[in-house]
Amino acid sequence: MKEKIARLRNLGIIAHIDAGKTTTTERILFFTGSSHKIGEVDSGTATMDWMDQERERGITITSAATTTTWRDHVLNIVDTPGHVDFTAEVQRSLRVLDGAVVVICGVGGVEPQSEKVWHQATDYRVPRIVFVNKLDRLGADFDRAVRDLEEKLSGTFVPILVPVGREENYPRAIDVLGNRLLDWTGAGDTDEPAESEIPEEWRELAAAARERLVESLDDDSLVEQFLETGSFERDVAVAALRRAVLGGQVHPVLAGTSLKNRGVRRVLDAIVDFLPSPLDVPPVEGIRPGTEETLKRQPNPSLPLAALVFKVMNDESRSRLYYARVYAGTLHKGDRVHNPDQNLEERITRIYRMHANRKEALDAAIAGDIVALVGPKRTVTGDTLCAGDPPILLEPIAFPAPVISAAIEPRSQADLPELERALGELAVEDPTFTVRDDPDTGQKIISGMGELHLQVLVERLVREFKLEAKIGNPQVAYRESIAAAGTATGRFEREIADKLNHAEVTLRLEPGPRNVGFEFGTETDVPAHARALIEAACREAMSSGPFAGYALIDIVVRVTGVLLPEATATDLAVRSAAADAFRLAARAGGPLLLEPVVSVEVLVPEEYAGEALKDLNSRRAQILGMESRDRIERTRATVPLSRMFGYATDLRNVTRGRGVFTMELSHFEPAEEAMARFGGR
Fold this sequence. Notes:
Blueprint: H1 2-6, E1 8-15, H2 21-31, H3 52-57, E2 64-70, E3 73-79, H4 87-96, E4 99-105, H5 112-123, E5 128-133, H6 142-152, E6 156-159, E7 161-164, E8 172-175, E9 180-183, E10 194-196, H7 200-217, H8 220-229, H9 234-246, E11 250-255, H10 264-274, E12 284-287, E13 294-297, E14 306-314, E15 320-328, E16 330-332, E17 336-339, E18 344-347, E19 350-355, E20 358-362, E21 364-366, E22 370-374, E23 384-386, E24 393-394, E25 404-410, H11 416-429, E26 434-437, E27 444-448, H12 451-465, E28 469-471, E29 475-476, E30 479-482, E31 486-496, E32 499-511, E33 518-522, H13 528-541, E34 555-563, H14 571-589, E35 591-605, H15 609-617, E36 622-629, E37 632-640, H16 647-654, E38 660-670, H17 672-679
Parallel strand pairs: 1-3, 1-4, 4-5, 5-11, 6-11, 33-34
Antiparallel strand pairs: 2-3, 7-8, 8-9, 9-10, 12-13, 12-24, 14-15, 14-23, 15-22, 16-21, 17-18, 19-20, 19-22, 25-27, 25-28, 25-29, 26-27, 30-35, 31-32, 32-34, 35-37, 35-38, 36-37
Helix pairs in contact: 13-14
């Protein structure tokens, strides 16, 4: 069984939009024999883009999982979206994956979302290999792409497949590990290049690449062999490179063109050779529920079950699927499992291995597997499923909060209950999509990560739930914080069912550094159980600020005093007193309204650069940098999100349809204009 797990690779394909992730995945499925025809994004036949909206728009919207084999290894592959509005799909996938292939465009290099997903992978300590794609395109430059990697991303990048013949769109490449020339000119669709000795004209380039590999790895056995012989054996280099990749600091770089079937087989070899199996990553950590005791689970099928639900979705028949990574133990069809997050039991009625939207029934799943489950009723994304003793609670998945909102109402009031049910279903699937009722207007407000995100969800209402709805103009989802420190004491004293409930909690709230979110600590002795209750109450209070009802961010909370009489300090009393103290301390600190600011990168032909820059400046943009490349002007800036509504249309008009842009959340900053507007209502 250990050998079976050692031959398993759980990996994601991640990148910026249009870098060629799905095209690469489709070639992987074809060359591994999982599909008998190559699916194409442009023609709407891609296996992994199975949603109607994905095929119509030509982009990936939801992460899709599949399983295939290569060189007697099982590859569990998750294809993720590249558009920033669907970044939560990348976040949840990276949480449960052991490795990743990062696809970079040979023309555009490292683009904004490439940086975003790279940092996400770094946060989760996911080893990566890099595939520089689209080298057949006009303006593609492998060396420039590698420099871009080194300048913008963390880590050491080591080319192991170096393309040559730029003037011919790179039909050949040097295999650095094998010291051979690969030639695809007669390979057709097979991706099986002819191999030969490296010609004289490229030997110096090959020698430099091999020397760079040795220097980057600094591996004793490899260095010793290289110094003694001036060369190295492939097996020695592969072993040294694997150790370095698993360490997380070295990233092999390959090259090719997925659309033309060049280099994908080499990516598959690199997945097997360099990315980790579940045995190569640290054991998953959690805590014993109700305590702070740390527990670890090795990837062993004989240990008690530990699994994490990372995605919930409904299939075409509206049956709910729970995607889970099994970290330890074995899960059988029919098993009853414990959900420590919700403190309830669930029954697993079916287990599937997913191939995009196609299901393969399984009797069991073991440590290392990624599967879809049917049966749970109240489990949500980020919940742990466990069995045996001791129970374990795994760390949940952190998702970004929504930044854009819009009012929604049914075409007919008779459809309101059905609309509420449908919105609830979508919110269960997507943790970055929220639904609330505006207390002032009574309107139903939906919130998400961007205009496209909300558009896609509203389209799903029509397609999947047969509901027509009216949508208001998008609005910014502000945040609140406090302007200064504030201290207050909360008290709760009430007799309930002839029992006195009484507790007092004193809190000090301070403005925190940008992006701290929420930080909690104590400056006095507080029993562990009461501390957990106070922290939970404060976290709940962060969801609605005292000024305009927006979520609070960047606040440091300190417990400075408690009065917890043993006979009366019930859970209700402690939580209520803490919530009261939080509310009073936030008001004492004074309100601060924050608006989302986005990072924007705009690419326009040189002749339209002036007008495009003028338009950005009219939106209160802070220009961070500009550069020209191949008669294309690239501008980087930060802009208040409130000024970016409708920008796609305006940019098309300014550039006659030739301008493109990307946008992602950068940070929140004080919103003086909005503060005055809200203050006057």
